């Protein structure tokens, strides 16, 4: 039997806890265990709840008296998988039907996922920086050797070096922006901004680039769009990134449309929302790529993105800024017709 005070403590724990007898039957399962593995577990065999060889091996090792405590990891399920840190400890009582072992399963999926994200991030940054650095090293070597006395080659190689250095500068700048935004993501902005004025300024800033890319920028701003809670610098960055992407990837001699208007009952937004929609008339994006567009360094066409100066971080930055503003990012695209990126932002300050 389990002491009432011990039962109360185990029931209050956030981790899944089982108490088993010597036959591996479940004498007790706390609410967290029932939430994760189903109700009505008491009296059933442990394998009915958790079928994992490493977990069962740890239980058998403790029951056999080889160790008083065993720790291991168990991955349960398929899609999605849940990774548990498993701790098995021996309890007093060796008779049949008496408590023999306690099994605690702590969900560490988020920790492992964060570790994987960090590992992937470092690998991606290393790869992205290695390419321009390798190119720069090769160009320097050429300038020091065969092209030393060739003014025409020297001028061409210096231009290439400038382009690679600019690429690294953009990457580092975006990395710093992403780090700053992620650090402040849980802090909701409290100031208000004139979102229409920010949109006009972003469009004016990119007008020359649009002309060079043979695009026409058109703003459609509803008269009822006023001030909204937000950080002016961050929302300017969102507008700039989305409009610049539309300019880069839209088809030549087409229009990029930026629309601002109010919406009621916007998904995920409490109260009225302001919708900022940026539409291009480009090649569009295949449906299978849409869920990954906001991942760091993900590119539908890596070569084309690099040729246009992309770092693969712009939409990741947009995603985190929108999250900080308690907004939503929607992406719609039709191959052959173009794409629309819509940012939904709360129109009122809510605490």
From TrEMBL:
InterPro entries in UniProt: BphY/WalK/GraS-like (IPR050351), HATPase_C_sf (IPR036890), HATPase_dom (IPR003594), His_kinase_dom (IPR005467), HisK_dim/P_dom (IPR003661), HisK_dim/P_sf (IPR036097), PAS (IPR000014), PAS-like_dom_sf (IPR035965)
Histidine kinase domain span: 124-349
EC supergroup of this enzyme: transferase
Catalytic reaction list: ATP + protein L-histidine = ADP + protein N-phospho-L-histidine
Gene Ontology molecular function: any one: ATP binding
Tagged with keyword Repeat: no
SMART domains hit by this protein: HATPase_c (SM00387), HisKA (SM00388), PAS (SM00091)
Alphabetically ordered keywords of this record: ATP-binding, Kinase, Membrane, Nucleotide-binding, Phosphoprotein, Transferase, Two-component regulatory system
The protein's Enzyme Commission number: 2.7.13.3
UniProt-recorded name of the protein: histidine kinase
UniProt source species: Chelativorans composti
Top-level taxonomy: Bacteria, Pseudomonadati, Pseudomonadota, Alphaproteobacteria, Hyphomicrobiales
């Amino acid at each position: 039997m389990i002491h009432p005070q011990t039962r109360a403590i185990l029931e209050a724990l956030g981790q899944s806890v089982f108490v088993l007898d010597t036959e591996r039957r479940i004498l007790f399962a706390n609410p967290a265990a029932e939430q994760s593995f189903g109700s009505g577990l008491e009296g059933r065999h442990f394998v009915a709840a958790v079928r994992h060889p490493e977990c069962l091996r740890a239980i058998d090792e403790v029951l056999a008296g080889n160790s008083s405590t065993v720790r291991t990891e168990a991955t349960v399920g398929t899609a999605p998988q849940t990774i548990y840190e498993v701790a098995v400890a021996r309890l007093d009582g060796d008779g049949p039907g008496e408590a023999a072992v306690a099994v605690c399963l702590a969900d560490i999926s988020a920790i492992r996922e964060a570790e994987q994200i960090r590992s992937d991030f470092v690998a991606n940054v290393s790869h992205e920086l290695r390419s321009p650095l390798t190119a720069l090293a090769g160009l320097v070597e050429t300038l020091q050797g065969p092209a030393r006395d060739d003014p025409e080659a020297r001028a061409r190689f210096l231009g290439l070096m400038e382009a690679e250095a600019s690429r690294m500068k953009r990457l580092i700048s975006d990395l710093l922006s992403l780090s700053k935004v992620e650090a402040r993501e849980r802090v909701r902005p409290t100031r208000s901004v004139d979102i229409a004025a920010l949109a006009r300024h972003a469009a004016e800033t990119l007008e020359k680039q649009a002309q060079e890319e043979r695009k026409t920028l058109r703003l459609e701003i509803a008269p009822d769009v006023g001030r909204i809670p937000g950080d002016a610098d961050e929302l300017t960055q969102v507008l700039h990134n989305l409009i610049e992407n539309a300019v880069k990837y839209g088809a030549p001699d087409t229009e990029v449309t930026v629309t601002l208007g109010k919406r009621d009952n916007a998904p995920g937004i409490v109260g009225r929302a302001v919708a900022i929609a940026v539409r291009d008339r480009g090649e569009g994006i295949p449906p299978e790529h849409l869920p990954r567009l906001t991942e760091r360094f993900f590119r539908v066409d890596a070569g084309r993105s690099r040729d246009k100066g992309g770092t693969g971080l712009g939409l990741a930055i947009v995603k985190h800024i929108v999250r900080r503003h308690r907004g939503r990012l929607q992406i719609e695209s039709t191959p052959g017709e173009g794409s629309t990126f819509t940012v939904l932002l709360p129109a009122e300050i809510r605490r």
